[in-house]
Amino acid sequence: xxxxxxxxxxxxxxxxxxxxxxxxxxxxxxxxxxxxxxxxxxxxxxxxxxxxxxxxxxxxxxxxxxxxxxxxxxxxxxxxxxxxxxxxxxxxxxxxxxxxxxxxxxxxxxxxxxxxxxxxxxxxxxxxxxxxxxxxxxxxxxxxxxxxxxxxxxxxxxxxxxxxxxxxxxxxxxxxxxxxxxxxxxxxxxxxxxxxxxxxxxxxxxxxxxxxxxxxxxxxxxxxxxxxxxxxxxxxxxxxxxxxxxxxxxxxxxxxxxxxxxxxxxxxxxxxxxxxxxxxxxxxxxxxxxxxxxxxxxxxxxxxxxxxxxxxxxxxxxxxxxxxxxxxxxxxxxxxxxxxxxxxxxxxxxxxxxxxxxxxxxxxxxxxxxxxxxxxxxxxxxxxxxxxxxxxxxxxxxxxxxxxxxxxxxxxxxxxxxxxxxxxxxxxxxxxxxxxxxxxxxxxxxxxxxxxxxxxxxxxxxxxxxxxxxxxxxxxxxxxxxxxxxxxxxxxxxxxxxxxxxxxxxxxxxxxxxxxxxxxxxxxxxxxxxxxxxxxxxxxxxxxxxxxxxxxxxxxxxxxxxxxxxxxxxxxxxxxxxxxxxxxxxxxxxxxxxxxxxxxxxxxxxxxxxxxxxxxxxxxxxxxxxxxxxxxxxxxxxxxxxxxxxxxxxxxxxxxxxxxxxxxxxxxxxxxxxxxxxxxxxxxxxxxxxxxxxxxxxxxxxxxxxxxxxxxxxxxxxxxxxxxxxxxxxxxxxxxxxxxxxxxxxxxxxxxxxxxxxxxxxxxxxxxxxxxxxxxxx
Amino acid sequence: xxxxxxxxxxxxxxxxxxxxxxxxxxxxxxxxxxxxxxxxxxxxxxxxxxxxxxxxxxxxxxxxxxxxxxxxxxxxxxxxxxxxxxxxxxxxxxxxxxxxxxxxxxxxxxxxxxxxxxxxxxxxxxxxxxxxxxxxxxxxxxxxxxxxxxxxxxxxxxxxxxxxxxxxxxxxxxxxxxxxxxxxxxxxxxxxxxxxxxxxxxxxxxxxxxxxxxxxxxxxxxxxxxxxxxxxxxxxxxxxxxxxxxxxxxxxxxxxxxxxxxxxxxxxxxxxxxxxxxxxxxxxxxxxxxxxxxxxxxxxxxxxxxxxxxxxxxxxxxxxxxxxxxxxxxxxxxxxxxxxxxxxxxxxxxxxxxxxxxxxxxxxxxxxxxxxxxxxxxxxxxxxxxxxxxxxxxxxxxxxxxxxxxxxxxxxxxxxxxxxxxxxxxxxxxxxxxxxxxxxxxxxxxxxxxxxxxxxxxxxxxxxxxxxxxxxxxxxxxxxxxxxxxxxxxxxxxxxxxxxxxxxxxxxxxxxxxxxxxxxxxxxxxxxxxxxxxxxxxxxxxxxxxxxxxxxxxxxxxxxxxxxxxxxxxxxxxxxxxxxxxxxxxxxxxxxxxxxxxxxxxxxxxxxxxxxxxxxxxxxxxxxxxxxxxxxxxxxxxxxxxxxxxxxxxxxxxxxxxxxxxxxxxxxxxxxxxxxxxxxxxxxxxxxxxxxxxxxxxxxxxxxxxxxxxxxxxxxxxxxxxxxxxxxxxxxxxxxxxxxxxxxxxxxxxxxxxxxxxxxxxxxxxxxxxxxxxxxxx
Lengths: 778, 778
Description:
Chains A, B: InterPro entries: Anoctamin, Anoctamin_TM. By secondary structure, chain A is mainly α.
């Protein structure tokens, strides 16, 4: 057992005295006033051996300046990373084309030609592994509180890092960019503005998968002829060999693949870009139809209905095909079964008990309590918020009408107040949005979902419902209460085009420019204040220790980085950036756009065209945002777009109803069938709606969620692990069986007539044993 | 290797010379004119060792009489049965409460107290194992045709038994009843007519499962308070210890459990009875509401809508709860994952190729070809048949109207023809039904589905659509075209009550009585004809050999049973019975009843009451039918009610539409809201329908298909097999990893600054190797 203890040194032959560590993966910034003991205790934990509850990572601190908090850089040896990759159940593609659990023993299987031990794990996977280790530093039974803070209690099994974050002992913890990789990525990604590349979002398929893929494609072609999406048929792409430095030179000018986004930013970001690309491609057809509709100026009932029906069924087809595509992508990423993961998320709290599945001691919380909280508390609260929103909207509309009346009566004096209600309403919506987001997050944390997936699901679904009401209720009001189609049309156009364009500017460019300017200004101000004799004292009063303890100036007792190490500057720069939470805002934007395009497509068919234009730009600004505006995102391993899939599907179903109703109300159509009675006219659209909904249902039900090749590959793995299980139990032998059988029942004899040829032996079968030489020799 | 060859003798110590074998499980009757070579070849195969492609079963023939075909009895030793149970992937409950693959090595795990090696496999499982072995006798490459029949070709890998059956070389093949078990089952089951037992259809839960179950129950209670079904809460039932002979005495008078039906008749039959019991319990509420509605004589719009809405949502709740219940049952039977089974059904044909999943050589048939056949050929044909049906119904209605006219004009002369069209229509429907069933079966066989599940699914769904149109189209015509609610009401009542009562008589009692009488008559006639000198010759002419060969009178060269063996008489008796195909007819009856009850529930609320009465009787007649009228059914291991679940759900959705429309049309309701305009009146019901449908959708989506405890149990097994897989790969060792790392890269050094601390070594890393003693010693 001894040798394994001395192995850490293998990786750092300079010994623990060296200040050099492998590239920094995480930077942890402690609060300037955090107690030295607490900091050192955590650092010790991070460095300690597994058997002492540590994470076995490498830590170096930045050379400290006065009154600044301790910042440490966390890294890991290559061996450690490979080990973690295995224990964190990372799945990777083997050279046989199947995706299997990563396993150090079978390392050769995962080494494609061109990959080495250094590059077998992508930057994203390395980040994931280090965070996984940091998160799994958990409090032990005997550790009652954080050293130095008797008031901060530690429940056994609690993730220590999350306690430090919650108590603000750690002010910031973020992965550091790998600048070299990032630059080469950015060059190909957002800088090439006029490149068609974003549409070629393809996986780097190896040959076997490509064959599978072709088959699946042939199959789609046969079952749904003509419905094939352009980017489902690709030529065999040249395999991206690795993510190492040599890549830049080789792949300059090549098409840019999702696989590369994934290898740096992780699965959730890559999934978003895949979806965006897929969805934009799928919008091309409605956009073309919208243009066609405008050019041809259709004007029969059948034509209108056909266009609407096609659009609405197309939505279902898009979403079904995306589900299949998503399964393919997730399979090749090894995240297809992430939904049923057994691991609990770091923030999950509960009594420490044995997990019924794994038998490990883990925080446990009764499932029914969570359900109860969801249905009995959260759901009513969300409902009330939605009602509040609707009520506010009604008041705004009512006030506007009143003003309209007053304007007529009292002339232009009232006219200047005309836009007050809507401005007031807009401000209120913004405010409510802000607080509701906090409320939703708080409620979801309080519901205490065990897995990250469930947590995200419940949080996002709360937000989506609210956003839906906020954004579309006024349109519904215009469409079905005021019934003014022209107003609806202009309103949709405004909201779609103007707000989206502003969004681009606001979400990517503005923060980048403003932040840079602000930072420069703030830095110069601070240094001036510090140096000026009048303000220096005041300044020190302001930057007061939060936890009461005086900042100790003695350096932390671990090795510091070389003061000239470029990572120190880099960490400072990136610390000032905003953290990238998740792709929620980006998905939300798509969701709202989807609503504007399809909910009212029969009134404003041009929406799809504008949406396509927007999305092309969106691909670029989102890329820019990720590379420049935010901190390096934390990798989330996802296997689908989660709650958004359901939201889009629901919106698709609602769109069928709204469009049927819009066509039914449309004054342009009413005169096309002057002979129909009003009831007949309504029934036509009820029937149309039912027919389209039935079609959608049938499609959703008939198209399998996973393509054949994915199902086969999964079955294959399942079968192999079943075989392995059987083998492990040992090859059954007849000998074993018949010997045992005899020892219980004596000589089995098939001569007796009735069933149960030998009487059941409670006496151990000794009575029946008739040993005979020739049966004994084996 | 030698010893294992001599093991068959272990089980039959009397040697191959003995004519006694364990209880007969299967009887195979060959055609009287089948070539002796073919018979002997197959018997040889059944007896041969596995390595020679045999089934290793025991065979004895009946003592032959002149001009009768050869009949053989097939059985198996206990050891063989256990072996097959393992290789056929049978799952059984272990004493730890989990359901796992049966494994001979871990036999002790499956031996509950009270179970012995003789009784660990139920009669149903024994039957399943023997048939599994018979079906897996497959033709080898070198066997080009059936011996004696050069024209009957054998494709390699084809199931030989199914070829013999298809070519009618085997005229009958059925499992023999175990009379002792059957009697004890029948006594408790259908004979106790006034017992409440059928409602207590519960699983025999062991204690651990019971706890799980209670938790799930608590959960339902909390999430859906008040929606709990009575038979979900049970006291801990006494565990049924075994199925051996001692059972009769002990369990007399105890409640009768599904588990016992399953242990004798297998999963598909037990599943049907569980469903019937569950569904009947669930109908009690609508029945009570129906009575209430009659007693209270509701007459406001709100009341009507509430009753209708409740009924329609109750349907969804029933079906959702059944899905969960079904998952519980299937889990405890080990059939939950039978849908994704890898084994292909015996009748599946195709090129012999490697299965992409298992790697075994199997018949393969492109998936897309099957799909193509389904969508391009079968679907249009089925569609045409449906159109034909509708067309015929229209003609019948039209003819009746014409006759009505003529009657008015020409008086009673035409009146006598009044019922000709409907009688003619009924006859046609009967005839079409008969041929359509053949067509559907033929089409499904031609579609060539790989798994039994897919095959059954496609066959049954074809039949269900047809039956739906046949049975309900006339009701729809009356309801929505003629719009005569009184006629509809009486029609529903007639069809529900009269036809179902007739059904009971026809399906169980009639065949039993008629068959017995007919058999006696036929036997006496044949013996008279044979003995009479005038007809004896003629008789021999009629019973002519089919395959041309003269029946050889030499006995088959295997051992015969004792001529006094009671099994010979039993086999003869049971051979005369009809084979039990599947529960299709029984499910269909429930499906149609479900339709009558819910499709028009707002018009005829009493339907549920009659349905309950009917079902109580149905439970008894179906039991009688299984025990007396049919041959012992072949066990089918099913995990759900298959296509019926979807059919019932679809019918539930259609019921929402029909009931909304019926309420909208109802003249009784119209005067309740005299101020509403016709359009508003229609919109009320459109909204009502949408609201109910949305509720249904939300329910279906929110209620998980499997209860928590089943999901946890499945996850546990999954986790264990994953662990086993990891263990099998060998415990990863750091030593392995770091040694390997060094041999490729030389000494890893974390001192260098940039990422990729050691340059990727194409040169085998020799340049970097800096061996140092202290790192080498481990």
